[in-house]
Design brief:
Beta-Lactamase, alpha+beta, four-stranded antiparallel sheet, membrane, Immunoglobulin-like, globular, 486 residues, nine-stranded mixed sheet, MHD
């Protein structure tokens, strides 16, 4: 679309707003305007008439929730003042005209580009700079003392002697040479920076720390505690991934769930993928034995090159043409599974109940409780994002909580480190004023997990020719693409 076309469509919109009636969209011969009032402004989407209006309304609602995150007041001047932040946020929601599968918390995280590793790196670097400066001052004082003592004895200072001896002359007069405060090493320090232009990388402590220490060495001295600081930074590194053997299996599951406030599941879709990676050609011809202990109606689908009959009868994943090997050094998807809502409201891995009730002085008392519904799961880093009223100044008082909580803009983030069969439930109680019950929906839940919702597991891997057992490694990843309580 050209700029003139867009300006023409925008100019036509106010003329279509006739009668003062409240609608969510208005159509012309070629386009559809989907809009929502924001005080004295309008949040407007221009789409084709063939687009899905339900998806457009959901996108519009996410746009309207993003604006108060960056604009303290919903005025034209404030919107113009925050134009760049809003554009960056909008770009995370819609790319090339299509809606991205993101929520408000993800948009906020992408725009902020907050990196815990970068903060650690900055702290370590500042410590190194302070220690290096202290060492340089101490070294300068030491050299100054040596120079004064040498002057009293009538001998040239140590730095001048070494300077002269380097060139085969030890008779240079002390009056003809200006003594530097800091000795310069005779061998240049090795520069550890990569050659050529490279992009910014958050959290790359090792190379930058080395090059920083090298620059200190070239300027005069090295901080004595730099290796200690580097080891402290390394101690904060995330744990290394599991050792990948020559045969590695990865179970990955994604969940999309929308639940009502009463606990009823409105939308549930679990999708999973088993990928196989082989790093040694002697294990190219193998069979993976999969055990399905899930009593629910999982929809299983194997890769077209996999022997479907062998999988149906005995749960064995192998190629139709047994003489052919699996590809090497690449992740090959061999099995997909899908589970959808079948009227069972207990399918959700985690139930979240939010009970806002109107209190005194126009405020709300909110009680939120979570409970693990599937005992075989273990969820880590569970974050429940609770929206707060978007207008005016609010007062938030938290009375009871499990784990920890933080307020980020107009969102209260309730964090629980782990939820499992031993720690199944938790509660959060807080009071917000002014507020109404609808201000606290929809809730958004995120987590990471190394357990899967579908009870699929690989029991063993064998050679296709003689059935010899093959040593293998596996990893499981289960997370929510979308988990909302509306």
């Amino acid at each position: 679309m050209t700029k003139a076309r867009i300006e023409g469509l925008l100019a036509a919109f106010p003329k279509l707003m006739t009668g003062g009636r409240q609608h969510t969209f208005v159509e012309t011969e070629s386009v559809r305007y989907v809009y929502q009032p924001l005080d004295k402004l309008y949040m407007l989407l221009i789409t084709t008439k063939a687009s899905n209006i339900l998806e457009d309304l959901e996108t519009l609602r996410l746009f309207s929730r993003v604006v108060p995150e960056y604009c303290a007041q919903l005025t034209e001047a404030e919107v113009l003042n925050q134009a760049f932040n809003l554009l960056f946020a909008f770009d995370e929601i819609v790319a090339l005209g299509y809606r991205e599968s993101v929520n408000l918390a993800q948009v906020r995280s992408f725009v902020e580009m907050d990196s815990h590793e970068e903060k650690i790196y900055q702290a370590v670097r500042q410590t190194q700079e302070r220690e290096a400066a202290n060492r340089m001052r101490e070294r300068a004082k030491e050299l100054q003392r040596e120079r004064l003592e040498a002057a009293k004895r009538g001998a040239p200072p140590r730095s001048q002697m070494s300077f002269g001896s380097g060139f085969g002359s030890s008779t240079m007069s002390s009056a003809s040479v200006k003594e530097p405060l800091i000795e310069t090493p005779t061998t240049p320090a090795r520069d550890t920076r990569p050659v050529g232009r490279s992009a910014m990388k958050l959290g790359s402590r090792g190379t930058d720390a080395d090059s920083f220490v090298s620059r200190l060495r070239s300027e005069g001295d090295v901080a004595a505690n730099a290796p200690v600081a580097a080891s402290v930074a390394a101690a904060h590194d995330p744990p290394a991934n599991i050792d990948h053997k020559d045969v590695h299996l990865r179970f990955e599951e994604r969940l999309n769930l929308v639940a009502g406030r009463d606990g009823d599941i409105q939308n549930f879709e679990l999708s999973g993928l088993l990928t196989l990676r082989i790093s040694n050609e002697q294990f190219g011809k193998i069979r993976v034995h999969v055990d399905n202990k899930d009593s629910r109606s999982l929809q299983l689908q194997t890769h077209p090159n996999v022997d479907k009959e062998a999988f149906r009868s005995s749960g064995v994943i192998g190629l139709k043409q047994s003489q052919r090997p699996f590809p090497l050094h690449s992740d090959v998807g061999v099995l997909k599974w899908r589970l959808t809502h079948a009227g069972d409201d207990k399918m959700a891995p985690l139930s979240v109940n939010c009970w806002p009730s109107e209190g005194v002085n126009g405020g709300c008392d909110v009680n939120i409780e979570y409970e693990l519904e599937q005992d075989h799961l273990s969820l880590s880093d569970v974050n429940i994002n609770i929206p707060l009223p978007s207008s005016g100044n609010i007062s938030l008082v938290v009375h009871q909580w499990e784990g920890s909580y933080t307020q980020k803009g107009r969102t209260l983030v309730w964090s629980v480190p782990i939820v499992n069969a031993q720690q199944k439930t938790g509660t959060l109680e807080f009071t917000v004023s002014p507020a109404v019950p609808n201000d606290f929906f929809p809730l958004n839940v995120t987590w990471t997990s190394d357990t899967s919702l579908a009870m699929l597991t690989a029991t063993k891997v064998t050679q296709a020719e003689d059935g010899t057992p093959v040593d293998f490694s596996k990893e499981i990843s289960f997370h929510a693409d979308k988990y909302e309580i509306v």
